[in-house]
Amino acid sequence: xxxxxxxxxxxxxxxxxxxxxxxxxxxxxxxxxxxxxxxxxxxxxxxxxxxxxxxxxxxxxxxxxxxxxxxxxxxxxxxxxxxxxxxxxxxxxxxxxxxxxxxxxxxxxxxxxxxxxxxxxxxxxxxxxxxxxxxxxxxxxxxxxxxxxxxxxxxxxxxxxxxxxxxxxxxxxxxxxxxxxxxxxxxxxxxxxxxxxxxxxxxxxxxxxxxxxxxxxxxxxxxxxxxxx
Length: 229
Description:
Elements: H1 5-14, H2 21-27, H3 42-63, H4 69-80, H5 82-91, H6 102-105, H7 109-131, H8 133-168, E1 175-182, E2 189-195, E3 201-206, H9 209-228
Antiparallel strand pairs: 1-2, 2-3
Helix pairs in contact: 2-7, 3-4, 3-7, 3-8, 5-7, 7-8, 8-9
C-alpha cells in the first residue's frame, strides 16, 4: 500500500516508518469519517491507551524510586489524561493529519481535544502492532519526555518554594484543606485552600488533590510577591 501525504508527514515527524501502512491509515481515521468501508481508530485507541499506561507507569517507577504510590499515581494521571494526550498530538503535528467527518470539524474545542487525545493513543496502538512493545515504548518516551520532567517538577516548584520561604521567615508551614470535589470519577475537579499562620490564604483547583494544592501554593506565592513589592 502506498503512503499518502499525511502518512508520510507523520512518519517523518515520528522518525518511524510503518511496515504496515494500513495500521497508520486506521490510526488517522476518526469514526466520523464513515465513507466507504474505512475502518476507524477506536480499536487502536483502546489498545494504545493500555500501551501508553504501561510505558508511563514503568518510567515513573524507574525515575521515582522513593516516591509513594499516591505520588506516582498523581504523576501518572496527569501524564495519561486526555488533555495531555491532546497537547502531545498538537506538538507532533497530528492536528491537521486526521481524516475527519464534516460533523466534527465544526465541534467545540473540548471535543476536538478528545479526538486528538484518542488519535495519539491510536497511533501508539498502531506502532505497537507494527513493531512491538520496545519500539512503541521508545517513541512514547521520546514524545512524552518533556511532559514527564515537567509533571515531576510542578509540585516541587510551588509547594517546596512556599515551604522554604516560610521557613526562612521563621513561620509555621502552610495548611492545605480540601474545600470541594466535583465532577465524575473519571474526570474530577478538586478545590483546595492553603492558609498561612498570618491568615493569608489562596485557593487552587485541579484534576487531582495534589495538583489543586500546587495551584493554591502558586496563587499564595503570587500574593506574597505582590505584598512585598
